[in-house]
Design brief:
This protein is of the alpha/beta class. The protein has one domain: Rossmann fold. It has six helices and eight strands. Strands 1, 2, 3, 4, 5 and 6 form a six-stranded mixed sheet that branches. Strands 7-8 form a two-stranded antiparallel ribbon. Helix 1 packs across helix 6. The radius of gyration is 15 Å and the shape is globular. The N and C termini lie close together (12 Å). The mean pLDDT is 97. This is Flavodoxin domain-containing protein.
């Protein structure tokens, strides 16, 4: 089985999660950052995994655009969808639902909330102000959910 993990990441957390996931998956796995290649061809892959982070309640625009262009093709793949974000529980679930269309969520073999990070050291001035005001965070915080990544990989490997 050939798998492609496609992601978009601003401060590197979704990329980190994608790398952790890659280690857990069976078969040949490649990673593509949408920043480098905005519409990668999917024909050579049986399995496609899509991952994004959330900023101010919205998914990264490159992911939105990729879904728009490839939704039909994604419906023919062994599919996985994940999100990196700092909200947890119901709020995180809601963000997942607004990120990925219902049709894809229902077709997907694994849907995952992988936690997130506030990488203050990589943020610009405005982002630092927002994170300080909204979350009271002034230094790097990591809450990547490794168990959730393992659970997600097991489902896709099954
Ligand atoms: C300015 C800013 C806004 C954010 N807004 C949200 C949000 O609305 N909901 C949420 O769950 N996480 C939010 N986050 C947390 C990011 O989703 C989290 O930092 C994520 O790990 C970023 O991943 P990336 O480095 O791959 O882009 C925000 C972070 C920043 C810096």
């Amino acid at each position: 089985m050939r798998t492609l993990i496609i992601f978009s990441s601003s401060h590197g957390t979704t990329e980190k999660a994608a790398q952790l996931l890659k280690k857990q998956l069976n078969g040949e796995v490649e990673l593509i950052n949408l920043k480098k290649l905005s519409n990668p061809p999917l024909t050579d892959y049986d399995s496609v995994i899509l991952g994004s982070s959330i900023y101010a309640g919205s998914v990264k625009s490159k992911v939105k655009q990729f879904i728009k262009q490839n939704q039909k093709s994604l419906m023919t793949k062994h599919l996985g969808l994940f999100l990196c974000c700092m909200f947890e529980g119901e709020k995180a679930e809601q963000q997942f639902e607004t990120t990925y269309p219902k049709e894809l969520r229902e077709h997907s073999k694994a849907n995952g909330l992988f936690g997130g990070e506030f990488m203050v050291s990589k943020m610009n001035f405005i982002e630092r102000q927002i994170v300080k005001k909204v979350a009271g965070v002034t230094s790097d915080v990591s809450k990547i959910n490794v168990e959730e990544i393992e659970r997600f990989a097991k489902k896709l490997n099954a």
